[in-house]
Queue: 2 jobs
Job 1
Amino acid sequence: MKIAVIGAGAIGSLIAGYLANKDEQVVLIGHLEQVAAISGDGLTINGVRGNLTVRLPVKIQLKEKADLVILATKIQDLPKALEENFAYLKETRILTVQNGVRAEKLVTEQLGKDNLFSSIVMFAATYQGLGQVIHNFDGNWILGRVDSGAREVLEEISKVTGKIFPSPLSDDIMGMKWLKLFINANNCLPAILGKSMQEAFKNIAICKISLRIWQEGWNIVEKARIGLVSLPDFPIERIRNLVSLPLDKAAQIFSKIMTNLSKEPLYGSILQSIKRDRPSEIDYINGEFVNLAGSTSQSAPLNERLVLMVHQVEKTKQFFGEEELIKQTNEFLN
């Protein structure tokens, strides 16, 4: 199978590098500076599986038809990626890996949904620099049909993705993506602080903010009657149980989980974008709770405030201190 991975950031590079290392025919599509670096020195992956340098074709634009195109850009960069590579995306199998719940809609608007498949990555990677990625921890790569995609095609794709990550198939990928949104919603706090997840969530008060994010999102999703579906390693009950516990106790549990995610410093996707001086996906993560609340006559004041704070960091390049973050969200912690 001829595979194209569009997006040479953390996840795209990790996927392309591991597939190429399994002797799959892969081309990686990235920005000019990424292409120059990887063409010259190769793609280096360090982390939980050891150290690996891979040589693979890398281009700034898709120049030929592929059997499978994996869209691995951040969701805010997806429309531009579709436009730039449109000629070779038509009637090609496409797999999305974006966080949030809007990628499939964006692709459908441009290309239809007959050849569209969706996925959720439960592994983590950090972009270190041009052609350099840290693989923080392993996890499943969950695949599912968006609507009319053929089951046999999905199974064929899973045989390829399964070479590098366990690839279970979901019968309700969008229900799972809504649940994954809760996991990603906490990325905004390290991004506001400019710290790794381990550093940020050592502070119990910051963990309390995370739990209020979940609680607010849970109420909104429940009233909107969106059906959440458990992920293989992250059941719905994990959130339900934590938001129902006394806040102090839940924060202690949450802190222990988050500070032990990875031996290497783990920077969420939102902070990684800010560090690269690029717009983040905040509007498609916490902003999704805000949008859903507005469309169902509800409110999401905490998530709305955090979205604004991330945009302020993006604009000013100045991070908030922990005390200031706690002060600005203190009204939600009682």
Job 2
Amino acid sequence: MNLYRTAAVVTVFSTVEHCLGFLYRIILSRVLGPEGLGIYQIALTVFAVFLTACSSGLPITLSRVISKHRAKGNRRGEQAATGAAVCITLLVSVPLTVLLFALRTPFTKVFSDPRCADLFYIVLFGLSFTSVYAILRGSFWGNKRFFAYSFIELVEEIIMIAVGVLLLVVFQTGVPDVNRAAVAVLVSYLCSFTIALIYFFVRGGKLRSPRGEFLPLLRSSLPVTAMRTASSLMSSFISVLFPMRLMAAGYSSSRALAEYGVVYGMVMPVLMIPSSLIGSIALVLVPELSECFYKRETEKLSALVGKALNATLLIAGMLVPFFIVCGEDVGVLLYGSAESGEMIAKSALILLPMSITMISTSILNSMNCERQTLLFFLAGSACMLACVWFLPAYLGSGALLVGMAADYVVTATCSLVLLWKKTGRLRSGKYALKLFAALAPAVLAGTVLRRLLMRVLSFFPALVLSVLTVAALEVLLLTLFRLFDFVGFFKKFLPKRRKKSPA
């Protein structure tokens, strides 16, 4: 299967997974409400810190190490590296789980609301299981088993949604709704671990002695783990700090939690829509980039980086007009919240630096630049913290969105500069300028048309017509500016006709 078809398969799975997760988020917002959603989000955010510390840097490092061994034909090295990764994550996750349960009473004080602690300890049972599952995914990734990687992720999402809907909607019990939602997360962790483990051994996977691979893998994964753990810590810290700063600005505790729930539970899932497509690009390209990097194929490496950046800009750029024009209506349609819709529309441009940060960080990590990406993350986080501390009194919940924008702009800029140094050139500057020139008319025309339609039609028909008009304008403008060949793109996935042999 060629690169395009592989990316297409991964994208389909990832898109379905994110669409289902998005629909489930809508159900949660309706059942739990903004305050309950805020509690749910805070608990999972704190849990993510420990999950990240146990395993986050290992999967991408393991995939890169496996790619390195594959380039040398060293099968034993691949198996030893996988065994080392499993040992590392168990040595961290098991003692950490025991310690957190032993210190439950003092640790509960970390949360501003004791209900968050109940949710946290429910999902904590799955810490070791989902950490090992992350390692197995890393081995699938390094061996280019993208179907298994994507399929099991999709199954995990389906199980969480199915169990969540059963517990929250079908079976009514005396257990709080937020606790039942946490049980659904735990069940999905256990199931995905079981499926991945069975598949790993059925497909001939082995775990050899980690001797010779343990310390090199640990050293290589530490910068990525540190960066992602710091990111999770930052999210957890923000989940505590942001409501506190809102309360200092005059908000009640309940309203502060609700504002946090709106941003992270409603706005961010919409803004993260491009992540499914960008994640698919990164998933397919990272093993290729690692092999090119270790084989010193500079020209091919530069071309792949350029294609990845252009594709990322295109994906994010195509969504920006939709969010600017129809963001307010999307918030009302999905969540029944005009406030979330207004935030979506105003923060649409965050998609560009956010998407560049996602893809460039993955690319740089595949090129052994984990330490630099950690420094870039810290610089962006400093900007985020400054905004969250100083701006709530002036912008309210908008301070969090401004902080995110500052974070992503700083990180994306630093990452692009380093990529330019590593590859010798970046081929995306001209493409980005043409993309902005092409999409600006779509935003302007779509905004004017939406206002007219909202005056003469009811809400839903006006929204549908606005979306279709913006889509048609984008296709036309992207084609005129020669930024994307829609016909050629779809032809890549059609089976080629066999030439008839002469009689």
